Amino acid sequence: MFSTAIIVFREVLEAALVVAVVLAATQGLARRNRWIVSGIAAGLLGSLLVASLTQDISTAFEGVGQELFNATILLTAVAMLAWHNIWMSRHASQLVAHLRQVGSNVSSGQLPIYFLATAVGLAVLREGSEVVLFTQGLAAGGSESLPMLWGALIGLGAGLVLGALIYFGLVRIPTRHLFTVTGWLILLLAAGMAASAAGFLAQAGWLPVQHPLWNSSDLLSQHSVPGEILHVLVGYQDRPTAIQLSVYLTTLLLIALGMHLSRQRAPAISR
Amino acid sequence: MPRIALPVAIAALLVVGSAQAETRTFDLTIKDHRFQPEAVTIPAGEKVKLMIHNQDATPEEFESYELNREKIIPGNSKAVVYVGPLEPGEYPFFGEFNQATAQGRVIAE
Question: Regarding the domain delimited by B23-108, which CATH topology (the fold level of the hierarchy) does it fall under?
Fold first, then answer.
């Protein structure tokens, strides 16, 4: 039961952290709940579909379909997060002004929130399909399956609670700093996802296999709870390769550059 | 242009094909949530292909922190995991969905 709880907890936590950051980043925006909930729901439905297609996905592309699928999901999410950040850097000051003056919601038409909703859906899809597969295996396991399903529920609950804690921690940040903080978080989140995608491409043989640059697993294991949280939030890896580090830094710089250029062209006065 | 392109394409395919043929394959079986064999010896400094046959009805996730690999293998099917080139040493792996029993290691020498 305990080991089941841990596995489900780890998968749920990864998705819950992405959702927490996105919820904080869209704080105060009208209809954001509807968008984010739609993203989560689509991700859950998608994970059932992906789980049922695992065999086909695995055998596609000469047996590396799963790696390519994961890399594609991750890179699409990176694109969505990047686009959001670049858009926000142009409009954040207007949004903050609005939030503080009006003290109410900004109409969702001003923020293309569907980029973030898609990113949320993809994160839920990736982690959710693993949970579905795992619990299907448990359900087929026989006599011991009931306590294990309880374990799965405990893991689910714990993952959601930790995600909620991160969210409530983030929204305590004053409004004028909130978008700056969530902007940085989304930037790091995206860079970490890109590095993970590079890992899957190396596993698929599409990128060269390299020795890790360092091994900091004794210091902070990527598979401990703090390591896992840092892995999702800032892209921490305890055994990164040179390619992964380069992809991480390149993604970081490209998005930051996009944000910078977008900010320069931002209109000085809104309306 | 097409007259040149075709032979070039065929030559390229042959090169790719022969390069892939050189990758040696090592078989690994999952049965009753255990790996057989539990220790796979592979040559160090060479990229090899692990062909993992999951003979259980339930899915398994082949995972190795040391090898930086994770891959789900559906029930009653097989999957490919490329590893290496590795330095000589032992690299543990496990089945994440059945960690209590599914343990193994790659030995590179």
Answer: Immunoglobulin-like (2.60.40)
